[in-house]
Amino acid sequence: MKNENGYALVSVVVIMTVLMAILFYLADALFSEMAISRNQKSATVSFHLAEGGVQEAIWRIQNDATTRNTFLNTTNGLTNFSHNPGPIANSSYTVAIQNTAKAAATISVTGFYQIGGKQAQRRITLNVIQATATGTYDYDAGLFVGGPNPGDVYIHNMTVSFGSGYDRAGIMSGGDIDIGNATVSVRKDILANGDIDVHNATVNLPPPVPPVPPGFPGGVQQENYPTDFLLPGIDVNGSGPNSYKSLAQAQGHYYTSAQFKTLLKSQSTFNGIYYVSGSGGVTIKNKNVTFNGALVSEGSISFTNANVDVNHTSGPSGLITLANLNITNVNINVEGLIYVGVQSAASTNANITVTGAILTHDFYGNNANLTINFNKEWVNEALQGGATQTPVIQMQHWEEEY
Amino acid sequence: MSKSPHLKVIFKKGFTLLEVLTAAAIAFVLLTALYTTFVAGTRSYRSTVNQAELAQNGRIALERISRDIRQTDEIVTTIPPTKDDLLNPPPNKILFQDGHSTTSIRYIEYRQDGNLLKRRTLHYSFSSSPSTWVLWNAQDQFNNPPTEHQDSEEIKADKISSLKFYGSNIVTIDLVINGSNQTIYLKTEALARNI
Amino acid sequence: MKKQAFTLIEVIVAIGIFVMTILGIISFFGYSAQVNRFSKNITVASNLAQATIDENISKSYDQITVGNGTRTRFSADQADPYYGYEKKVDVTYVDQNLNAAGTNTGLIKIVCTIYWFEGASEKNVQVATLKSDF
After folding, report:
1. A18 touches chain B (CB under 8 A)
2. How many domains does chain B have?
3. Between chains, do A56 and C53 touch, taking CB under 8 Å as contact?
4. Taking Cα atoms as reference points, which of A244, A257, A259, A307 lies closest to residue A283?
5. I want to staple A48 with a disulfide (CB 3.0 to 4.6 A). Which of A41, A65, B63, C129 is the partner?
């Protein structure tokens, strides 16, 4: 009997060992999988916490006196705050608002989410600027790139001309001006706070009109211009009655991006001030549209393969966006103000005529014909005195760092 | 006539038939039970590991794609607003601008190739000026489009049996991962924050 | 004799322990399928939570409905892979301490919760963010 048990015992022990091995590997795989799954969930949660922190930073810039003052008036001020616990259990985040110039800052937020003994974190940065110049638009520039944190004027493969029979104007940039393979004819000055680089291009400055004074002294091209060019503020979505949002609401023309998209299917002519909210913006493709008034969008405006007419009938007119303006393969005629918060891009076979001015944070033009008929009065009408209410914050370059 | 010595000899030297049969039966039952458990164990292990691998492929695929889409400045591919339109079915690839690259214009494309998820980076330029990277829809003075150049291509995940992109404002990424008779369905939405 | 052989009771006890161990191991294998499914479900749910939050922040501030949301199923179709998941979006006005404020402060807290059942017990994944009126 002893021998019998010996055989059984040995084989049992051997197979049990094998089983235990399988069990351990299985348990290991299972617990790893569980941990990975939980970690990924924590990472997602901490990412959205970080985004929340960015939003709170923007809110504080607009609503907290100390934060606002530091943001608007210092060139390298720093505001820090954090929440522990954050908006939900086991969450927290820390925020830093670092000024890079007056009314321009980089917001950095790290969001944390605790699960068991481990903490997941995600970090996001966002550059924000606020155009705060009030008063009237005084620059004699039909194409204007202004700060804070301005971009550049990039003109390639283009013909740029300023219409005669209108007020004299030129091009002004808070950054650089890069003109290549183009013909640019202005009717006043070409000024840049940065450098002016002209290669393989013709730049025509207007000659003086004697007698000088009081006649026109002639146009100049000057880089490293000493006074910073600042983009004027505009009341897009303030709560006052004169913001574009309020004006559009009063006319019954306040839409979400999705609603406006639906409207575009049945309508091509728009009379009055149209406001499109949300980040979706306005996309018009393969269609001809006419705006007798203004199109104001919180998100980007994109025109592709279209004929676009914006007419000045009565009251402010133009295209206003807080994000980007993209024009591709388009014939576009705008009477009024083109105001672009972050960037404007004109490329690919676009014929652009503006009676008014283009005020933007950055201008990228490639392969287009641009005719500017400068009309300062219409620009100021559309700016409506500028940032009379709390002007809107504009966001550039959101970055998920890790 | 002492019985003890005989019995002792019997116990030491041999076994009764009954004992052998009993022992064999017990051994048989034990070993069968063990073997069944063993088979069940390995099957369970393989199934768990397979499921975990599918899930991991899915997680990586979705995370990489949504991170890149969140960062982009422009989505080049036109995607249909819903996934059900038979006349306009959702594509299994998406091309968009690399939002992390602020100095040069780069593009990223995710596509399903067989059951692999491939990510490639591209740039566009004109032959007259190959070092200048331009927008995908730029045109030269003769209205010609630029040429596309691939800079890199990597496999990011496998066992992908279906990949769909659709949505109007925000991109929905719909993923089906399949392997060894197990299927996982994953879906998420990514809003491009730089557009 | 007692030193050299096993009694029947000892054999039965040994077999009994052995059988219980085997049963324990087998039940662990069965349990492993559940755990695996649970971890996969967490992944599905956190991706759905992310989708829901991104959908909400793509709207402009005043288009987001403030208040407690209702639980909605992702699909009414039982064959749909996301049928088992429900979402709920709760939005509250908050102040600078992230405490609930009664009036529109210009800052809202958005909490998206995804619910599903793991057998008989209910699980959830919760993702939160803030949005500012700017």
Report:
1. yes
2. 1
3. no
4. A257
5. C129
